[in-house]
Design a protein that fits this description.
By secondary structure, the chain is mainly β. It contains no helices and 7 strands. Strands 1, 2, 3, 6 and 7 form a 5-stranded antiparallel sheet that branches.
Length: about 70
């Protein structure tokens, strides 16, 4: 899906939250749009297992996807 098909949600094409399961630190990132793709750049402070959520607006519907990162 091209990034141009996404609506703006709270001033960004998407919002990403990452929380390491061990430390419970909180990281909130807005992906950038590059060549009509969402690109997320961040660094992780440890090798913990992380939970990640991405929220984006497609059409008139707000979607939230969650992931476990090892």
């Amino acid at each position: 899906m091209p990034a141009s098909s996404l609506g703006d949600y709270m001033g960004a094409k998407a919002h990403v939250v990452i929380i390491p399961l061990e430390s419970k630190a909180h990281l909130h990132v807005h992906p950038k749009v590059h060549q009509d793709e969402l690109v997320l750049h961040t660094s992780f402070g440890s090798k913990d297992t992380d939970r990640m959520w991405i929220r984006l607006l497609l059409g008139c519907k707000l979607y939230t996807f969650d992931f476990v990162l090892f």
